[in-house]
Amino acid sequence: MLEYRQHPSIVRVTHPTRPDKARRLGYKAKQGYVIYRVRVRRGGRKRPVPKGIVYGKPTNQGVTQLKFQRSKSTHVLLQMYNFLQWSCISLVQDSTYKYFEVIMVDVAHNAVRNDPRINWLCNPVHKHRELRGLTSAGKKTGVYEERDICTTRIALLAGQPGRETTLSPFVATVSSLMCLKLFLHGFCLEDKVVIILSLKLWMLKCLDFTVLET
Length: 214
Prior knowledge:
Distance between the termini: 65 Å
Helix content: 25-40%
CATH architecture of the largest domain: 3-Layer(aba) Sandwich
Number of domains: 2
């Protein structure tokens, strides 16, 4: 911590401080990957505008609930504009600052462009992915945050233990139809008709039984 305070707010480091976390997020010790340590002030960031009036488009009219971490990540990209942000790792904090490590990828490097596991980042549609909530930290909040009612992750459809398995009726219906389509794939047309009619009769009986119970 004492060493971090002597450095500027943005400094390049040779290797990640938390290599286990960095590798889980996709970092590799190869050419094209760069680590920057970033220092941001703790607490919220309020936009310095008089009386809370922001002249411009509605997307820029936020005054409160702004985060120093996001603004500092944007500042890093303004200085290293030829890099693409991969993810961000939280390190330590003191009474005034929080320290993060930002994993950057050089999409123009041949080691990255020739690697089929990572060269999808070279596609121009992935520019400024950190501003659209496409990093691992951005997917935990905002529009990508998981709700209690429904979710769209394929892993949850498999019912993995320890995960939330509550699905909306629409998602449950779509998954059931997909399973039925896979089940009927090997049958002929006559058998498919018989199976579908049998399922329809069974569903009607279940509905009648439910009505009688209520």
